[in-house]
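Annotators were shown the component list below and the corresponding predicted structure, then asked to write short factual statements about the assembly.
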Amino acid sequence: MKPTIKDIAAKTNLSIATVSRVLGHKQGTYSAKAEAKVLQAARELGYRKNTVAVELVKKRADVLAVIINATPTNFSTDIIDGIQERAGQLGQQVIILYAGNREAPLQHQAINTALQRNVSGILLVAIEPDATDRELLQAAQVPFCFVSLNLDDQNIKSVSSNNHDLAYQATEYLIAHGHTRIGLAGIDDYHTGRQRLAGYQAALANHQIMADPAWVQRGNYSYQAGQAALSPYRSLGVTAVLAASDMVAAGLLTAAQGQHLTLPQDLSIVSIDGTIICDITTPALTSVTQDFREIGRQGVNRVMGQAAQTIIPVTLTERASVAELDQLETK
Amino acid sequence: MKPTIKDIAAKTNLSIATVSRVLGHKQGTYSAKAEAKVLQAARELGYRKNTVAVELVKKRADVLAVIINATPTNFSTDIIDGIQERAGQLGQQVIILYAGNREAPLQHQAINTALQRNVSGILLVAIEPDATDRELLQAAQVPFCFVSLNLDDQNIKSVSSNNHDLAYQATEYLIAHGHTRIGLAGIDDYHTGRQRLAGYQAALANHQIMADPAWVQRGNYSYQAGQAALSPYRSLGVTAVLAASDMVAAGLLTAAQGQHLTLPQDLSIVSIDGTIICDITTPALTSVTQDFREIGRQGVNRVMGQAAQTIIPVTLTERASVAELDQLETK
DNA sequence: CTGAAAGCGCTAACAA
DNA sequence: TTGTTAGCGCTTTCAG
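Structure shown to annotators:
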């Protein structure tokens, strides 16, 4: 039914080998006449190459698999844009596999799907691998790279912002604005969260601020986590919070407004990510902004073996969610 | 290098046929003993089935391709959740192909990629097909379905909200709240935009409101489009705007606040979509809320041939962005 | 219940 | 420059 190179061969009185050559653009191995005939026949028959067959014989698919989960955050489109851009330049197709909401079986399944198709590389976006995931990945002879997540293991490829530095910068910024009772909200208890926690603690320690452990409210980077974090802070006299993501910041902000707090006077917020969410809230959120597009691009480079373990710099974007504390009275 | 069924056959002294049968779970065609031997050998060898080979011989891939573009909106994750959920139930894998930002070549490429892999179906999420896209799709013997977009052609499968009704409801709501000078912002000039425009116009006509054409500000559903729409409205005495998406509404809202308008008193907004963006803004956005998850689920049903052309109902979610106009003075 | 053998659509030696 | 041929790894008749 669907035409194959055989049909083209029959129609042109050429061998399938010649047809394959012109369709594969093996320049110099066929005559202009053969080329013309094949191309025309292909057009007439509505021929389309069967990629599956090609992949089988070549034992290689020029495909990058991107495994991604439904993070409660919203930065993944930028990362994917970056991936797509660079992958296109390197002649790789991109297929995105979806791993649900941190659901282990779906993560395994996505990895297996990628592996079973001999993709040329796997990019794991914001995925915390469990033991099974790591085994699957290690056992296969396929390059993989964690993107927007750093496993602390120099031997495992990754591209991300420097989470320690990122939290450190944000905390320093708040301290520079007179805050000393500073919360950290919404981080998880895995690599990213722990790295950010360390940066936050380092900045506080750097200024001899004795942190109250209750200043750290864990969560999953979601809007809901931000909302939940507010009320504990109110009794702690916290004047500023570093939010683990824009979504956490937004949750914190709407919860605060629900309690009739005035921002930033009653509560300053610095957010991590710097997506468009920061512009949408009132007041706009000051953020440590990650370069997600570049993270995506470099992820491709890394998995295609063109770059070393990579840290992408962040920038601090001042908007309107931090108050200078000097002239204000701490509660 | 990578083990194949041949290796398992050699190791177990069985034929590759038998190995294939147990690995394919062709129950009743092999003995328990054979099964045990094969399974163990497979485990020991770290065998993983080569999906590409299977797809070649079966001439069929149990894969649904989802083609999606980087819409400036943000509802796609919900749709994908729904797709994934239903696809899983039907034993279909899902691969997501990314079509850039309404870029024709990338759209063709994504469609071709799907077609070249004989996927069992193609779901196009919020994709406006051009002539080439439609030809490609029609020519192939692969079921496809537009999701969150309705082409007005009863013969083409689609699942979406009723755009006419959705705009009609929103407009009626504003009229019921005393508004008569009502804008429509951010719609595109394709199917979705035109359908919503018609619904908006129908509601106005229904109340003998003579609409000023300038009340309609076109755009691409983006935050920027919302921001750009504000200033024209100020000179037109518009008291309320129906925003074509949550992002448009957010843009409108921040632009209005930038002009020191008080919302909703100075400008009421109803948004279309009802994503989490509506909760994040101040005031929260009243919206006509689409059931994106269900749209995704039904998209799978439709493409797998289990449902007819489908309209998913919407609901109006009242939040805080619409003022009752009775007791207020129109500018 | 098991094995032998024929392909799926294509590429890549190897000959001609 | 072109054709012949042998597979890629798997499923599936058809015999046994």
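Statements collected:
1. Residues 163-290+313-330 of chain A form a domain with the Rossmann fold fold (CATH 3.40.50.2300).
2. The first strand of chain A starts at residue 61 and ends at 68.
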